[in-house]
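Handout, section B. The chain below has 212 residues.
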Amino acid sequence: GVDADAGAVVLNVTALNAAGPGHVTVFPCGEEQPEASSVNYAPGGVYPNAVVSKVGVDGTVCFFTHATIDLIVDVNGAFPAVSEFDPLVPARLVETRQGPKNVTVDHLFEGDGPVAGGSVLAVKVAGRGGVDADAGAVVLNVTALNAAGPGHVTVFPCGEEQPEASSVNYAPGGVFPNAVVSKVGVDGTVCFFTHATIDLIVDVNGAFPAVS
């Protein structure tokens, strides 16, 4: 049901029967493979996640996997080539871990250490990773890992009251990603509240313009 000239697709991507821990990166074929994770997995489980991906050359989407896996991909919708949605090559905006490969697209919000439990991290998203400076909303993949305890991440526009909502739920000993669409708040920022201390990874996959 996807149009031949679709510009982006909404997918459910599932990794299972993994030979080892790792991740899947979903990106438009024909573009450089980004440093981003779309689905994180480990042996012995079934790991799904929603992914919005730009469509690449010849109408294709590429799937890189770190370890050998079985892969299931379902399509739930599509955006036309010309639309208000701006699909992007995934770009990492937040990476709290330290290491030579743990980098962000512009080295901001990189290697700063875990986000403390009960705190809010305000992240500049506008003007980074291909997001327009006046974007009204962003499509993110938010990953919590190395959690000190069970809890959740709440993603919300900075400058607005923190809502009673969970965007990513996590527990110690695992890697927990989720797709999140968030309104952009004051000064082009999105806020991330975490209940427990965690490492946080945030990748951006697309954006919507502000409503005029």
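Note. The first strand starts at residue 6 and ends at 16. Compare this with the example in section A.
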